[in-house]
Amino acid sequence: MRKPRTKPAAASKYQPVRPFTEEEFSRVRRVLGQKVLFVQGDAAVSYGALLAGCRFFAGYPITPATETSEILSQLLPRVGGVCIQMEDEIASVGAIIGASRAGAKSMTATSGPGFSLMQENIGYAAMTETPCVIVDVQRSGPSTGQPTEGAQGDIMQAKWGSHGDYELIALSPSTVQECLDLTIDAFNLSEIYSVPVILLTDGIIGHMREKVVLPEFEEVELVWRKAPTRPKDEFQPFFDDGSKIPETATFGTGYHTYITGLTHSDTGYPATDSQPEHHRLVSRLCAKIRDNRDKIIKVQKDYQDGAEENTIGIVSYGVTSRSVNSAVKLLRREGLNIDHLRIITNWPFPEKEVAELAGRAGRIVIPELNLGQVYHSVREAAAGQCDIVPMWKTGGEMHTPDEIIRVVKGNG
Amino acid sequence: MKVFRKAKHIREKYLEENMWPSIFCQACGIGTVLSCALRAIDKVGLDLDKTVFVSGIGCSSRLPGYIDADGLHTTHGRAITFATGVKLANPELDIIVFTGDGDLAGIGGNHFIHAARRNIDMTVICVNNYNYGMTGSQLSPTTPVGGIATTSPYGNIESPFDLSALAIGAGAPYVARWTTIYPHETMMAIKKGIEKKGFAFIEILTPCPVGYGRRNKLKQGKDYLLWFKQNSIARSRFEKLSEEEKRDCRKVVIGGLQDVEKPEFTSEWSRLVDKHFVE
Amino acid sequence: MKTEMRFVAFGGQGIVLAGVMMGEAAIADGINAVQSQSYGPESRGGAAKSEVIISDEDIDYPMVVEADCLVALSQPGYDRYVGEVKPDGTILVDRDLVEIDQPPRSGSFYHLPFAKTADKLGNRIVTNVVVLGSVCAITGAVSKEKLAAAVKSNVPGKYLELNLRAFEEGYSLGQEALKRREAEAK
Q1: Residue A307: which residues within 8 A CB-CB, separation 6 or more?
Q2: What's the whole-model pTM score?
Q3: Which of the four CATH numbers 3.30.930.10, 3.40.50.920, 2.60.40.10, 3.30.420.10 does domain A299-408 have?
Q4: What is the per-residue pLDDT across A359-370, written as a single tens digit (0 to 9) for each?
């Protein structure tokens, strides 16, 4: 059969790349039904993606992330998008990068073993400045570990997993509602900074059900990548207009852009034998994130007014923040001065905020579901201003508030 | 003269002028493959604004860079996965993948068979030169038994893949194999592949005199010419052989090897969406 | 008010769904809920646990340490968790699936025929909904109306009537048990 060379007259509803209007947003709301839902974190991530305009999902089944694939395979056709189960996680990231280059907001979801496989292509997305979202529902590792248990063991891998010098953005939700909200943020950040964004949920939140309130169109900001402003014959896909973030020409729009993971000049073509070009390129890739850290980084400061000598700081992130919140309430009831810094943006790391806390507190307690990851960044940022007390726990169970209370009181 | 006018037309219309000279070695066959592909594209009348060239890593994977169109030069072995994403995100685009034997069937073998199985509309052009050329002539999944490569210095003892048979076995609806000594037939096969609504695979046996050739008594382009001639048989002639002769035939069958109709992924997905879409 | 509930059973007895329906009812009542579960790798027959925390305040730590209410439909589940109930907590145990040598010393203990009630209705599969009815009557953690609505929205149409009857039967079972206990207390 010869295929028709022209577009069929009756256009299909299958259009992953379409202007994301209020109409599309309301369609998602209609598909999701009620405004208030009682759902798992994996579901909230899926809903957040749809509300953010994601119309392409590629994934491979893996506990505890599979629910996202299942939900999106059901919902994406209903909003004109596409969901494909690839042959592995390497293929999944390849597909979402391809889809993004063709103009679709795209996402994949996985857990530890799959996240390890994805690293080379995540580096490719960083090098080629391709917006995309990767959800890592963390479980205990290394290797196959505990498939059904939650963990926070991939924080460092999220930043350093691929080879070479690059920056990306990673976010850690601590509630199911935040799974939805931060998925929308993840898409926006990836579009603004042309960078892969990692959403670091975990097996506990991924499978936990909690109340989620869906936003209205007016309540969310939805961002799309910068379109070319120059004429086609002058357009250079990696030209830095001063913002350090290039404009993106979508495939199929006539700009004839060449995208390569090789070191490239502004034109997109290889410049592998040039030391200055390489240095300029990777420096810009890092600077576009580092220079905008104040705009990117989100933390929640639950500090007590008028810090005193005996203030104790706690740094937390992700699901662990919930144990800390419970502990802080009880500790304050007992009259202790506690400053709690909840990290929402794990990467770029909120060094300034941690340094500030280290200046206020006599010591900082940092509970994590691993054997010491953010601990190192906290220690580096605190720069010796105060003691850093790690609380490491692995095996799939959260710290209980009691365990945190004991360590904060110095009886750990 | 007509031939030269045609060459000028192809050069001016399709080639990215800033990228020349190419990285290819003397007497390399990849240029012939590019020429065949561009002539096929010209014959079909593909709109270069709506065509995306995707490739992995290796000599042949550099081809998209020489074409004045959208190009995606991806990671090693993964071209087809990226191509899948591009096609599925915008089914209006035509996708042409350039790959090599190592890229496609070594590191990327799994993606190759799955894309063929899914039958996603794209044309995969594989330059099979029997070795990893770019890294200096290492053993590839298609190196013949006895073939000398830098990582099989005593001769290859592994059975090679028959890439076209693999594609057919995995379900590709269009498969053809030619050698660069038949540029017209190669061009026509690519044309048919582009016109096929589905996964089309064209394997092109290609000389690599500087890499594989000089280690295997194929130092010159003309050595390859002879080697390809002696070791290949046209499908039309092969079909006429007796069953016994077919069984004993050690030659590579070239020609159109598969051409059937199968439901294509994006068409099927389109139907699925139209059925479940919420207005 | 904060109620921490723990359901334990064998996989396949529907306690994860029971926890979900409890949580949905709480949300519909306008309060907060967190539901989580753990189970072995097999989807049928292994140990299953479903926890729900219902509270009119924000729920931070989402796990149950000591339950206000333990529901046990399996012997190993009961044996493992009966010691992790608050002193004034409530324990509901299936009379036919779990053997009790001696009732626990603290808390309100109910030994009720959930599975048998479901059998009488014609299908043991609705045991979990009988349980929900009783839990609702005895603990009052969520409203009967919203819990019935949650049951409605979670069961397939052709089993709707059966499930609603199971819910009502379970509710009566709980009410009667509560009355008996109050009478005994007087």
Answers
A1: A337, A339, A360, A361
A2: 0.96
A3: 3.40.50.920
A4: 999 999 999 999
